[in-house]
């Protein structure tokens, strides 16, 4: 490892991060569930996003590390009869986590229930504000709705928020004296608030997706019995383990990158994060270091490895390697912002732009779109980074591999 005293060069830190994220190994010739499982374990979190310009973002990190694999494999792992992953927003935003992490976030679910019901919380858990405000209104206007929604899911099985709301609308229409103020949108909104509260508090889980809309079902019908029976950890112990997972996944990181509210794998309140990081340093599990170009104190994982990296990958905007934009700029000298919410006239590099990783550098930005009508992978623009080496041949090879993986035929280059 290239460590001089307590200092780590930017190049070494970049390689440490890439190896920790699974880019230090050659892609396997054949991919099965074991390799997919290993990737998920390495990255820790697969962030979900609804944008489908290219493909759903949670599929891309596995492709970036393994190459072609069967996407239904990941679907079965997440939403099959015996899931290995579960969906929640107690990791980094809405994400898929290994079921082994479920005991580590149960304290967040209890804290979420407390926050919604107005209890003081030292844990600093933040339920989506629309749910908090919506539940405050429902407690006054429709105090029994949450119980009714939970009972209906228990009786009828998994359903989307729209299906829950539609069922309510039918009952309203059957009412001989319906309330004219309760239209279908109002009912859908209330049903959505109720099921999202039940999801946040762990009473229901996501059993599947229909056109990417969540299907809610009772937690005991979604998660394996062994996971549900696992003993619940003390809050401090669970939080320490979450930081350990984040440290292994990142390799070297600041406390904010490990568990900050905006950029961390598993966000924690600042005071809690500071205390736990100090405890792990005291235990020798984290090594304080200074990283070239990073002003804040950084911490090196015990498992850190800075061996040479010979990677070739297109990265999802939500890949764990680059989702913290400040960290991406510090390690790779690569200023990156997602453009899908930027007005068209203000976009510089395109709409759905994926960084291209070659070796241990981010060398280009590639705007991509899957044109499903013509079965074509469109590449509207390719923008080289200043001083980038020749990357066209490996990029074309990666684009052709991606096209075959997505079931598209030609690649249309700019």
Overview of this protein structure:
- With 414 residues, the chain is of the alpha+beta class.
- 42% of the residues lie in helices and 18% in strands.
- It contains 16 helices and 17 strands.
- The strands form five sheets. A five-stranded mixed sheet has the order 1-2-9-10-8.
- A hairpin with a 2-residue loop joins strand 6 (204-210) and strand 7 (213-218).
- Helix 2 (33-43) packs across helix 3.
Quaternary state of this entry equals single chain
The beta-strand count equals 17
**Total helical elements:** 16
Name the strands of the widest sheet in spatial order. 1-2-9-10-8
* Helix content class: 40-55%
The shape is: globular
Query: What does the radius of gyration come to?
Result: 23 Å
The low-confidence runs, each spanning 5 or more residues with pLDDT under 50, are: 169-186
User: N-to-C terminal Cα separation, in Å?
Assistant: 41 Å
User: Structural class per helix/strand content?
Assistant: alpha+beta
* Strand percent estimate: 15-25%
Largest sheet: 5 strands, mixed
Mean pLDDT: 89
Task: Quickly list its features.
16 helices; single chain; 5-stranded mixed sheet; 414 residues; 4-stranded antiparallel sheet; 18% strand; alpha+beta
């Amino acid at each position: 490892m290239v460590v001089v005293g307590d200092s780590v060069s930017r190049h070494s830190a970049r390689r440490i991060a890439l190896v920790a994220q699974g880019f230090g190994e050659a892609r396997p010739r054949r991919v099965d569930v074991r390799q997919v499982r290993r990737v998920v374990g390495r990255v820790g979190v697969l962030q979900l996003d609804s944008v489908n310009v290219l493909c759903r973002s949670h599929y891309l990190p596995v492709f970036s590390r393994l190459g072609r694999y069967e996407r239904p494999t990941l679907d079965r792992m997440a939403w099959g009869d015996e899931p290995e992953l579960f969906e929640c927003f107690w990791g980094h935003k809405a994400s898929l986590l290994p079921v082994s992490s479920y005991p580590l976030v149960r304290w967040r679910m209890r804290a979420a229930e407390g926050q919604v019901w107005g209890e003081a919380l030292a844990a600093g858990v933040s339920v989506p504000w629309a749910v908090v405000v919506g539940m405050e209104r429902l407690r006054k206007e429709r105090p029994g709705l949450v119980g009714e929604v939970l009972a209906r899911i228990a009786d009828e099985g998994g359903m989307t928020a729209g299906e829950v709301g539609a069922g309510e609308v039918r009952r309203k229409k059957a009412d001989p004296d319906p309330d004219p103020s309760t239209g279908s949108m109002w009912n859908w909104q209330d049903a959505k608030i109720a099921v999202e509260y039940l999801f946040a508090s762990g009473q229901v889980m996501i059993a599947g997706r229909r056109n990417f809309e969540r299907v809610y079902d009772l937690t005991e019908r979604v998660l394996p019995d062994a996971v549900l029976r696992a003993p619940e950890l003390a809050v401090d112990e669970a939080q320490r383990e979450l930081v350990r997972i984040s440290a292994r996944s990142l390799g070297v990181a600041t406390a904010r990158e490990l568990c900050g509210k905006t950029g961390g794998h598993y966000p924690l309140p600042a005071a809690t994060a500071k205390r736990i990081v100090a405890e792990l340093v005291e235990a020798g599990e984290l090594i304080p270091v200074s990283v070239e170009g990073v002003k804040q104190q950084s911490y090196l994982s015990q498992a850190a490895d800075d061996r040479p990296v010979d990677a070739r990958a297109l990265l999802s905007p939500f890949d764990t390697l680059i989702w913290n934009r400040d960290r991406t700029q510090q390690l790779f000298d690569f200023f990156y912002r997602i453009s899908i919410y930027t007005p068209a006239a203000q976009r510089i590099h395109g709409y759905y732009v994926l960084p291209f990783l070659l070796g241990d550098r981010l060398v280009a930005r590639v705007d991509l779109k899957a044109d499903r009508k013509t079965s074509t992978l469109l590449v509207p623009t390719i923008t080289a980074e200043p001083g980038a080496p020749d990357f066209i041949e490996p990029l074309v090879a990666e684009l052709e591999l991606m096209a075959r993986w997505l079931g598209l035929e030609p690649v249309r280059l700019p």
